[in-house]
Design brief:
Helices cover 55% and strands 14% of the residues. It contains eleven helices and six strands.
């Protein structure tokens, strides 16, 4: 897997590179600005880009805009976006279109090495990865929705893990239950939320997040 890292903090940038190289992943370039990132993507044609949301000069959305431009130039590029804080609007917008190969994680998640690497692998494989804290805030925002109120506590757990981008097998392992039990929970969730069931993880996440976007 060929990876380009875009992060203005030199310490974090080099730390990420060391972490990924220690896992035998091929970090072909690192960049401290959006312009350097785009040049590196054009030159090295990586499979995955790890990109900070806020980059110089204004530290607003340069990283996001650069990631969008990079995917426009290279449609197969997977992008894992890192952010210091939960930015719900961007996280929801990122996934609402249903495109695969996209992820949104808080920077603190990098410290949980296995979780970070699992998310990177999932995004590289064309899936979706959403930080659990983002999912928790989205679920809290719509707590009063009648559809969510009909869910059992276990179904809400499954829904949150679905929104993170996990498939049935991964959810079963996380909750220490059988995959068949998860499948039944998923069917119940879609029925209660009036969403068509599907086993495709990207479509499931899109459906969940579209539901979460609806006004209460």
């Amino acid at each position: 897997m060929r990876i380009v890292i875009a992060e203005d903090d030199a310490l974090l940038r080099e730390g990420l590179a060391l972490l990924l190289r220690a896992e035998a992943l091929d970090v072909v370039a690192t960049a401290g600005t959006a312009a350097q990132f785009l040049a590196a993507v054009d030159e090295h044609r990586p499979e995955v880009a790890v990109v900070d949301v806020r980059m110089p000069p204004t530290f607003t959305d340069e990283g996001v805009l650069a990631a969008v431009e990079a995917r426009r130039r290279h449609p197969g590029l997977a992008v894992l976006v890192l952010s210091a804080h939960v930015e719900q609007a961007f996280a929801t917008e990122l996934l609402a279109g249903g495109a695969g190969g996209l992820g949104y994680l808080l920077k603190e998640r990098v410290g949980h090495v296995r979780e970070f690497l699992d998310a990177l692998q999932r995004v590289a494989a064309g899936g979706t990865a959403v930080d659990p804290e983002v999912v928790a805030q989205l679920l809290t925002r719509v707590h009063g929705d009648r559809g969510l109120d009909r869910l059992t506590p276990r179904e809400r757990e499954v829904l949150a893990l679905m929104a993170e981008g996990l498939g049935n097998g991964a959810i079963a392992r996380r909750l220490v239950v059988t995959e068949g039990a998860v499948h039944k929970h998923v069917r119940a969730i879609f029925a209660k939320l009036d969403l068509a069931p599907t086993d495709d993880s990207d479509r499931r996440v899109t459906a969940v997040l579209r539901y979460l976007e609806r006004p209460g």
